[in-house]
Amino acid sequence: MFDSGLIAYLKKALKVAVLTGAGVSAESGVPTFRGKEGLWKKFKPEELANFDSFMKNPDIVWEWYAFRKKMMSEVHPNPGHHSLVKMEEYYPDFTLITQNIDNLHRIAGSKNILELHGNIRRNYCLDCGRQYDDEQLQMGKTAPRCECGGLIRPDVVWFGEMLPQDILNAAFRAAEECEVFFSLGTSALVSPASMLPMIAKTANALLIEINPEETELTKAVDHHLQGPSGEILPQLIQEMGI
Ligand code: BV8
Ligand code: ZN
């Protein structure tokens, strides 16, 4: 199924980094952003996933997040997530960088995860910073309030917001130092996450993309493995014998 040279190279690599996007969760039933059934189709992302809209209309933004929290709490990791857990166990130095906020990598058992855009399971108070997980929130029609009276927001990175600096730096470091970089299920459009694959390539890593479609990145990758990650990744690790 795969080029034998590629399998041999992957088996002897020591340092591997992976960037995942919404496509990796598509086979779990989580709609991607830009796909046909794209989440962004139903909603105006710019109007929902940003701080100003939240301050202007917290109830509307919370309605969207309550809908996504419920949907993400009812889905399960797919074979693609489980293959990444096996890869983490196999490689001496493995970094999983994700743009996804759906918590599925953690549920699948991945350990060393860099959550670039936060995690939909976490929330915090805008005024006092107190953290709340979903179970502690009364999810209703209006945005939940903290005991101090402050507005509670989801702990995700909105457009125009900085990514957590320490996590982003760790992701840049992993991309610079790895021998193999996988770009999985991402349209590679949202920065600064979209910079990581080219940072790895510039640092002479082997750049592999898994995606049923071509993306902005495809022309620059060493291997474009065309297909769903939930099918390709299990085949890849099977051929690698891990
Ligand atoms: C920042 C969390 C610095 C929230 C997300 C112009 C105006 C304003 C801003 C900008 C601008 N130009 C650039 C920017 C910066 C902006 C940006 O990149 N915008 C894009 C749209 C151009 N970035 C930011 O704002 C970032 N912050 O830059 O701060 C700064 C600060 C202050 C002032 C100046 C600068 C913050 C970005 C984070 C936004 N938050 N999510 C939430 O989810 O609610 S982004 C969200 O969208 C995701 O996290 C993810 O990153 C992105 C979606 O991308 P993908 O994951 O790739 O998903 P997509 O649907 O696009 O693609 C899916 C792919 O999977 C497809 O290729 C498909 O073919 C494939 N696929 C489908 N099925 C499968 C599959 N693949 C494999 N298997 C399958 N089965
Ligand atoms: Zn508070």
From the helix content, strand content and strand pairing, which structural class follows? alpha/beta
User: What is the rounded distance between the termini?
Assistant: 16 Å
Ligand inventory reads:
ligand BV8, zinc ion
SSE string, helices as H and strands as E: HEHHHHHHEHEEEEHEHEEH
Mean pLDDT: 94
Beta-strand content bin: 15-25%
| Gyration radius, rounded | 18 Å
Brief characterization of the structure:
With 242 residues, this protein is α/β, with parallel strands linked by helices.
Keywords:
242 residues; Rossmann fold; SIR2/SIRT2 'Small Domain'; six-stranded parallel sheet; three-stranded antiparallel sheet; 11 helices; 9 strands; 19% strand; binds zinc ion
How would you portray this structure in words?
With 242 residues, this protein is an alpha/beta fold. It folds into 2 domains: 4-30 and 75-117 and 162-240, Rossmann fold; 38-74 and 122-156, SIR2/SIRT2 'Small Domain'. It contains 11 helices and 9 strands. The strands form 2 sheets. The chain has a 6-stranded parallel β-sheet, sandwiched between helices. It has a 3-stranded antiparallel β-sheet with strand order 5-4-6, with helices on one face. Strand 4 (118-125) and strand 5 (131-133) form a beta hairpin. The radius of gyration is 18 Å and the shape is elongated. The two termini are 16 Å apart. Bound molecules: ligand BV8 and zinc ion (ZN). Residues 125, 127-128, 130, 146, 148, 150 line the site of zinc ion (ZN).
